[in-house]
Structures are given as structure tokens and as C-alpha cells.
Amino acid sequence: MKAINPTTTSAWTKLVELSKKNQTSTIAALFNQKDRFERYSRSLEDILVDFSKNRISDEVFEELLNLAQETALQEAINSMFEGKQSTKPRTVQFYIQPYVTAPIPRSLSMAKMSCLKSMPY
Question: Measured between alpha carbons, how far apart are the two ends of the chain, in Å?
């Protein structure tokens, strides 16, 4: 698994520029966009990820996806599910109840980023 500092990527630099450019925008003003929820939310099975309540635009969303690519996020996620983490030689698990663990279903992993990539620009 590669250790890539996200702050050294070109996507990070662009995100910093976009942050400065959009500092004066307000969430209230952004909510005036008619299709904001549809454009900036994704669901996968029973999980809803709603970016619409943040100061996000098509440009910002695109750069976030670029950042994920530049930092090899997909590779890191796959490595964790394959037990290739640098800290523990086991697959990723989450706790359902105290002392009971279960593997994270692969279909719910961020490795399935296709729902995010389907955003219309």
C-alpha cells in the first residue's frame, strides 16, 4: 500500500484554490439550486451519502474524485479488505455490538466508488 501525502497532489492544490474562491458562498444560497440533492447525493443499498449540505460544486466534486485517484485510494481500500494493512495482518472489520464483529460486506465498501463516479457534470 502506497503512502501518498494528499497535500502534495495537484488535486489538493486545486481544492485549496476552489476553497478560497468559494469562501463567500453560503449553504442557504446553494440550496436555491433546483436539483442540488439529486446531483450531490448517492446511495448504495441502504446507505445514503448526501454531499448537498456542504459547500460543494461540480468542480469541487470532480477534484475530490481526482484526489482519490492521485492518492491511490482504491488500492488502499482493496489492500485493507485483503488484509494487507500496514498495522494489522487481518481484513477490515466493524463492530455490530460490543465483542461481536463481522466482515464489512464488499458491496458496501468504498471500493465500489462507481456510484460517486456516475455524477453528471
Answer: 31
